[in-house]
C-alpha cells in the first residue's frame, strides 16, 4: 500500500460495495416456513435465572432444533409470537459427563442448542 497513491480511493469504493452487499443479505434473512414447522424449530422457551434477567432487557432465550438457522428461527418467532426479532444468536451447548450411579461409570447428557432472540424496544413476548 502506497502512502501517496490512488489505492486508498479504490479501497473505499470496494468497502462501500461490500457494505451494500451485506445490507442486501440482511434484508433476505427471513425464510418462508411450511405450515406447522415453527413448533419443530422452536421447541420451548428457556427458563433459567440468567434467561429471566435478560428477558427484562428484551432478550428472550429459546431451546431450538439442532439444524435450525437464524432465518428459520426469525420466521418461526414472527409466526408464533407475532413479533419481528432484531437480532438472533445461536449457542451450541455440549453434552456434559454425569455419574450413572451404577457400575457402568459415567454417561453423557445430550447436547442442546439455544437461541437468544433480541427484540426491538417496546416489543415483548408473553409466555403464560
Please name the defining characteristics of this protein:
128 residues; alpha+beta; Alpha-Beta Plaits; four-stranded antiparallel β-sheet; two-stranded antiparallel ribbon; 34% helix
Biggest beta sheet summary: 4 strands, antiparallel
Low-pLDDT runs of 5+ residues are none
State the CATH architecture: 2-Layer Sandwich
Assign the CATH topology.
Alpha-Beta Plaits
Strand order, sheet with most strands: 1-2-6-3
Number of domains: 1
By CATH's scheme, which homologous superfamily applies? RRM (RNA recognition motif) domain
Classification by helices and strands: alpha+beta
Number of helices: 4
Work out the oligomeric state of the chains in this entry: single chain
Distance between the termini: 59 Å
Beta-strand residue fraction: 25-35%
What is the alpha-carbon Rg in Å? 21 Å
Shape: extended
Write the H/E string, N to C. HHEHEHEEEE
Give the proportion of residues in helices. 25-40%
Give the total of beta strands: 6
CATH top level label? Alpha Beta
Mean pLDDT: 84
Amino acid at each position: 500500500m502506497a502512502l501517496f497513491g490512488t489505492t486508498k480511493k479504490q479501497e473505499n469504493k470496494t468497502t462501500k460495495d461490500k457494505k451494500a452487499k451485506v445490507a442486501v443479505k440482511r434484508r433476505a434473512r427471513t425464510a418462508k416456513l411450511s405450515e406447522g414447522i415453527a413448533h419443530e424449530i422452536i421447541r420451548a422457551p428457556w427458563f433459567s435465572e440468567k434467561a429471566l434477567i435478560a428477558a427484562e432487557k428484551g432478550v428472550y432465550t429459546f431451546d431450538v432444533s439442532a439444524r435450525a438457522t437464524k432465518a428459520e428461527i426469525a420466521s418461526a418467532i414472527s409466526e408464533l409470537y407475532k413479533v419481528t426479532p432484531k437480532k438472533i444468536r445461536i449457542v451450541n451447548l455440549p453434552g456434559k459427563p454425569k455419574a450413572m450411579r451404577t457400575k457402568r461409570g459415567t454417561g453423557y447428557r445430550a447436547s442442546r442448542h439455544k437461541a437468544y432472540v433480541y427484540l426491538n424496544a417496546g416489543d415483548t413476548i408473553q409466555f403464560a
